[in-house]
Amino acid sequence: MMLGAAIFGGSHNNSATAIWEAGVGLETEIAQLRRGDLDALSTLLTRYQNRLYRYLLRMVRQPAEAEDLFQQTWLRVAEKIHNYDQNRNFDAWLFTLARNLAIDHLRRLRPESLDEPVGDHAGGESAAARLVSRETPALDRVLARERTSRLADAMETLPVIQREVLTLRFEEELKLEEIAEILGAPLSTVKTRLRRALDRLRGNLESQFPGENWQ
Amino acid sequence: MSDHDKIRELLPLAAAEVLDQQEERLLAEHLRTCSVCAAQLEEWRLLAGGLRRLPTPQPRGVVVERARAMAQIRLTEHLEHQWNRGVMTGLIAFAWILTLLSWPVFRFISGGFLSMLDPQFSHTWLVFCVFTTLVWAGGGAAAILLSMQQRRERSLA
Ligand SMILES: [Zn+2]
């Protein structure tokens, strides 16, 4: 509880107007891209580069592999954009392209990662070791950073399928319906997956850092 | 409490803000009387907040620029391909029109000659078919040669 408050304080806000304006801009860009406008492709790439890379990195975990998939995804966008139905959600369409590539990639390289949950090992060096190795600019900032990386580490130990649903919901902030579309699964499955992922993540954190009131 | 366990299942989903209306109502009712679940929900919310604030990894600039360049080339190729197909369709339509239009002209010029060859019955349809086949065979051969040349150029590039 205290731990959580210390780490995760802060607010998360988005102005509705900004979202609306972004949506209108996006529609124009997509329409231009469908007509073959290279600048529109460039603008879209810039708009989505961080989100798409983050999703791919959460899926495959290796930056080099995520980078390769990132490039492949944009090639797919260039090839498939004329098939894109303007009434569909673009985020879901884009992430589905990326997902198909990532899943194919994992199936080829690490097929076991797709069906078997990865073991719950603690990620890397201990938190205490890392704290010591760092200078202490301001204790609370160090703690905040430290705990964020603990959370990231704990998330990395989850199976792909669970990491994926967490990143889509919490980092990409996609709606349940959009996630279901990307995963090609019913809403109830997405919810179950989300619950199990959170359960397991919390379990991992509690077992790795038992003294920290994660209960 | 009978629905206590059921509510516990809803807590992480509540933190993820994906409950439907009925689940929301159920949860709200339960929370009014159960401080244990209320405390648990707070925990889940903190975890959810932590996930929302994980640092966003950024792709390297060189990777982004390469992706941009490659995608733009692919898009250009794709458009060219579409344009070629459009041109081909146009040419085929044009060739058909030309074939049909030139037939009466051909008949007019060669009418005397043809009737001399075979005065008994009309060869109109037969000759039309031969004429059309010749024209189209010529056109087809040209198209095949053109596409072979294009392929060779592409493989050299
Ligand atoms: Zn309760």
**Extended strand count of chain B:** 0
Classify the helix fraction of chain A into a percent range: over 70%
Spans where pLDDT lies below 50 across 5 or more residues of chain A:
1-14, 116-137
How many domains comprise the coordinates of chain A?
2
Q: Strand percentage of chain A, roughly?
A: under 5%
Q: Indicate the CATH architecture of the largest domain in chain A.
A: Orthogonal Bundle
Q: Would you count the extended β strands of chain A for me?
A: 0
Describe this structure in words.
The complex is a heterodimer of chains A (215) and B (157). Helices cover 73% and strands 0% of the residues of chain A. Chain A is mainly α. Chain A is elongated, with a radius of gyration of 19 Å. The relative contact order of chain A is 0.11. Helix content of chain B is 85%, strand content 0%. Classes of the chains: A mainly alpha (215), B mainly alpha (157). Bound molecules: zinc ion (ZN).
